[in-house]
């Protein structure tokens, strides 16, 4: 009784399992029909290291297909033919190009479809062959093409560096540093001397300014005293000058009156008094001149130096 039940359960389980497998196969078939792909050819001259069958194809970071096959072009061994399987829903334009890129540092690579504009025409096959996508230059290819030139420049740079760091240049550089050190030391000494000289000059300038101020103060004091003294002398001497002037005028008047009397014959002493009248007249003239000069410049009486008269023949 128990064995019959076990066989029944096993048979039912097997039937259900077969039905499930058949359903899954139909589901995969339907999905494959829904997701139709188109084939494209990409020819590259770069290394395809990291690429393999079923490697991904991306456009702007979105998966759009996979690689169907990779082979060398039999007509040109420098080229590699990569057959791309891309979804029909993705329009491939004529101005698009494919580049081999790497997944970071994993060593795996993928095909990146770049470029393309909406106004560009859709890429189509020609002469019954697969539509060919243009190949772009990858970063690795650029680095590889420029690597030789970079290495040459690097070797040249190393040679120049080795020549620059030769024993002779190192000795010359050491001498230059020593001379520079000596020059700096002399500059410091000169700087200290210049600072000391400037300080002395500043002190001297201060003393000179003080002396000039004292001299100016003393000169102003002396000038004030001279001005006061001149005013006092002028006040004291002016009355005497006025008296001299009056006396001179009186003498002159007296001389003229006396001269007229003598001319009229009032006195018989004309010849005797004539020399005396001449002296009195000259004295009157000198007194008048002295009074006039003192009125114009009283200081000349005290401070003007007299010039001695020269004798005949001097």
UniProtKB/TrEMBL annotation:
UniProt keyword annotations, A-Z: Membrane, Transmembrane, Transmembrane helix
Q: Does the keyword Transmembrane apply?
A: yes
- One Pfam family hit: MlaD
Keyword Membrane on entry: yes
Membrane-spanning parts = 7-28
Q: Where is the Mce/MlaD domain?
A: 46-116
**Protein known as:** Possible ABC transport system periplasmic substrate-binding protein
Q: Which organism is it from?
A: hydrothermal vent metagenome
Lineage of source species? unclassified sequences, metagenomes, ecological metagenomes
